[in-house]
Amino acid sequence: MHSSASPAAVLPRTALLTGVGRRRGIAAAIARGLAADGVDLALSYHAPYDRRVLGEDADVELLAEELRALGRRVELLPGDLEDPAVPPALVTAAREALGPLGALVTCHCESVDSSILDTTVESFDRHYAVNVRATWLLMKAFAEQVEPGTDTPGGAVISLTSDHTVHNLPYGSTKGALDRLVLAGTHELADRGIRTNVINPGPIDTGWMDDEIRASGAAATPAGHLGGTDTVADLVRFLVSERGAWIRGQLLYSNGGFATPAL
């Protein structure tokens, strides 16, 4: 089977993941999947967000122990991505701990429900700082690892997005901006060997759903059930691998056909 990557373009087996606060979250599932594939990991998290928005404590230390038991190197990197100094510092710290990074997977977000009439300026600005500006700064620092035109591969960037907007205005609008930002990277950063993709996983229950939401989501999915965190992780694992290297600049719907009308 031929690969789209030459031997000189094999990526470092290292990755920086953001938004890895809770072991039942999507980012934690991605971390487990990449660790199983032999990838060493830097895990970025912000415990105050998990407590403030999700009402849970971050348990990323237990996840790190789990991954280290698989023989992986794991670096924990706390930080509030609203601060513009934090994203480049995370990339620097990850590189110092693990060496050159082969992948950047952004799963972080600010997500506080509000609508057109009741969103505050403070909340609106925080959503854009965390969801858009921080993603840009992470991509920038990740790309700056590699000089243009060199034989060293730049790696893969993957971000998670969402269609949700109604009564979740600042979150939804920032996801639209994130899509455009990340997808532009495939073209703007091509001379650094960087490929970028965005994944829309549809509704995934990581503890935020009640019975009514789960039932409604399952009814809107042709298979009759929702996807899980592993369905997201499986696609990420493929996209960062050599086998997925030809998929570039795409917004991929990996949602089981959620809300797709029958034809």
From TrEMBL:
Keywords: Oxidoreductase. GO terms for molecular function: oxidoreductase activity, acting on CH-OH group of donors. InterPro entries: NAD(P)-bd_dom_sf (IPR036291), SDR_fam (IPR002347). The keyword Cell inner membrane does not apply. Coiled coil: none annotated. It holds the Pfam family adh_short_C2. Belongs to the short-chain dehydrogenases/reductases (SDR) family. PANTHER family: NADPH-DEPENDENT ALDEHYDE REDUCTASE-LIKE PROTEIN, CHLOROPLASTIC-RELATED (PTHR48107), RE15974P (PTHR48107:SF7). This is Short-chain dehydrogenase.
